[in-house]
Design goal:
2 copies of one chain form a homodimer.
Chain A lengths: L20 E2 L2 H10 L2 E8 L2 E12 L2 E7 L3 H5 L14 E15 L7 E15 L3 H15 L12 H6 E7 L2 E7 L17 E9 L3 E2 L19
Antiparallel strand pairs in A: 1-8, 2-3, 2-5, 3-4, 4-7, 5-6, 5-9, 6-7, 6-8
Chain lengths: 228, 228
């Protein structure tokens, strides 16, 4: 039984390699949940801008945060505009990419990488509801290290006021996945060049405690990298 | 003696955390040369699009390739337009990001990541000179695995015709770097929460040879992951 899927649109159906595209919600969520850095694109003065930033997912909503003084977040307006505040939002494209392997073919042309990516198109709007904002900030911290938000001092009023959170609903979404081995031309198979896939590994180094750690503070069990 | 630098412009000077910005060419080149996947942003029908793609650097030029049928590459026009071909190019923003560590502060607000990124603004144009195109394709392969391009079957005429290469000159460029430890507020230092930096590690798994490898083909010395 297929899981729920996003509805494809003109801009989520690729012009090529359409067989690599997927709209499966479970797959999209899994790719998003494995990461915490996205590349957020928006248009400024008619030109594209792409910035790396942290994100978090809560259900079918993505959250990105930043200083209330930053240009894209100011432009994004408010999530729940009142009568006097139309809150047009900010057109964005949010992309998350994991590179899983290097695909070395005998021919230069068929070199590739194995990857999984998600591209989200939509309109980002500022979150103004305090409870939603709190949950969004927790989600941002927990995306980086699951379980971490419960073991921190939460944002106080001043910090919360200085932080803008924008929301992007998961509606116009696609995933793209390349897996597997080398796709060389049949006539190239006898060539003497090595061909195959080099898997990529991600991991953690040993955590480096802050020198000013309060005496007796133990490394918590949720910390990545503890086993070396 | 400081090395050469790019000239800052309105859009390469950040509105905040300007102390993290750098225009140093050596630093920019080092960040670009450590990667091979960028996030390329452009504007389509007034909305931003951000796609992951491979890139290569040759001096002060970046190259990105793709199918001649892809929308952004078609739009990019030609690098050396003739009288009948104005070749307007495609406004792009090309961003490369390396995440080096997770910064876990006592306060949720001061959580961060250590990273190095480069953002390039400019106009991408199609490369039409055959020799430049050949060098660009070599650079793309060698960015993924240094030395690899010499050990492949080069693109033939048909493959070359099917591949569009666009060039983006390194002119309007900035790097942004966050390094170091936790920046908690003085009044939070005594809190019982663990704080510190978790370094991120990238590495390679053992290469998986193509099952149809020609008999006697040894793994070449330039292959990453050979030592496990």
């Amino acid at each position: 039984m297929p899981s729920a899927a996003y509805t494809p649109t003109d801009r989520t159906v690729p012009t090529r390699a359409a067989h690599k595209a997927s709209y499966d919600k479970e797959l999209v969520h899994a790719i998003l949940d494995e990461g915490y850095v996205c590349h957020l694109g928006f248009v400024r003065d008619g030109a594209p801008v792409v910035l790396p930033t942290l994100y978090g997912r809560v259900g079918e909503r993505l959250y990105v945060h930043g200083s209330t003084g930053s240009r894209p977040l100011r432009t994004a307006g408010k999530a729940d505009p009142g009568p006097g505040d139309p809150g047009p939002g900010l057109a964005v494209c949010l992309t998350v990419t994991h590179v899983d392997g290097l695909v070395l073919a005998r021919s230069a042309f068929h070199h590739s990488v194995n990857y999984r990516s998600v591209v989200v198109h939509g309109t980002a709007r500022q979150v103004t509801d305090p409870e939603e904002k709190r949950l969004a900030l927790d989600a941002l911290v927990d995306h980086v290290v699951p379980g971490r938000s419960r073991d921190t001092r939460p944002a106080n009023a001043k910090e919360s006021a200085a932080t803008a959170v924008i929301r992007l609903d998961l509606e116009e979404v696609s995933a793209k996945v390349r897996t597997g081995g080398v796709n060389d031309e049949p006539e190239d198979l006898a060539l003497p060049h090595w061909a195959g896939v080099v898997p990529l590994r991600k991991g953690y180094g040993t955590p480096v405690p802050d020198p000013a750690l309060a005496p007796g503070t133990e490394a918590p069990g949720y910390l990545p990298g503890l086993s070396g």
